[in-house]
Design brief:
Elements (H helix, E strand, L loop, with lengths): L1 E6 L2 E10 L2 E6 L2 E11 L2 E6 L2 E9 L4 E5 L2 E8 L1 H10 L10 E3 L4 E6 L6 E2 L4 E7 L2 E6 L4 E6 L6 E2 L4 E5 L1
Antiparallel strand pairs: 1-2, 1-8, 2-3, 3-4, 4-5, 5-6, 6-7, 7-8, 9-16, 10-12, 10-15, 11-14, 12-13, 14-16
Length: 167
């Protein structure tokens, strides 16, 4: 699976391959072997090429913000569609306040934390997905009201499948 990290006006391709729970990550000609483990809510332990790192996810939407050894990092991670939109329009659908929440990768919906009619704030958890042996919290890209929930718990989804619609 290929993602892109936006750095200024450049897009850096990052290839992620899942090999039985171990991730092979290729970026800028380097290869990283990563053994991910979820330690607690938003806290992960990564064994990266034999070196242990504890990573705390601080925010997932609209940019990924995380902390490693008391140092915070913020990156914009895009899939192919989002990259093309940025190249054409200069910003993502989230910057326009788009309320379609889509699966960032193939996986299994474990739990839905909202119901139709709920008011949500940007960054609020909407559901939990399991993908690549890790639980991923899917958060609201905008402030809004839950208009429609398209998926159910224990449902398999593909990358870019519509999960929840906000208005």
């Amino acid at each position: 699976m290929i993602y892109y990290i936006q750095q200024d006006d450049q897009f850096i391709p990052v290839e992620i391959e899942d090999q039985n729970g171990q991730l092979i990550v290729r970026v800028k000609g380097q290869v990283f072997h990563i053994d991910p483990r979820r330690v607690a809510d938003d806290q992960y332990s990564f064994l990266v090429n034999g070196q242990s790192l504890v990573v705390e996810r601080l925010q997932a939407v609209p940019d990924l913000v995380f902390r490693i050894d008391q140092q915070e990092f913020a990156v914009t991670v895009l899939n192919e569609r989002q990259k093309i939109e940025r190249e054409i329009f200069g910003q993502t659908e989230q910057a326009h306040g788009h309320g379609e929440v889509r699966a960032p990768m193939p996986g299994l919906v474990l739990r839905i934390d909202v119901k139709v009619g709920d008011e949500v704030k940007i960054g609020q958890p909407l559901l939990i997905m399991e993908a690549m042996k890790m639980e991923n919290e899917i958060r609201a890209p905008i402030d809004g009201v839950v208009k429609e929930i398209v998926v159910e718990p224990h449902q398999a989804v593909e990358k870019e499948d519509l999960l929840i619609r906000l208005e």
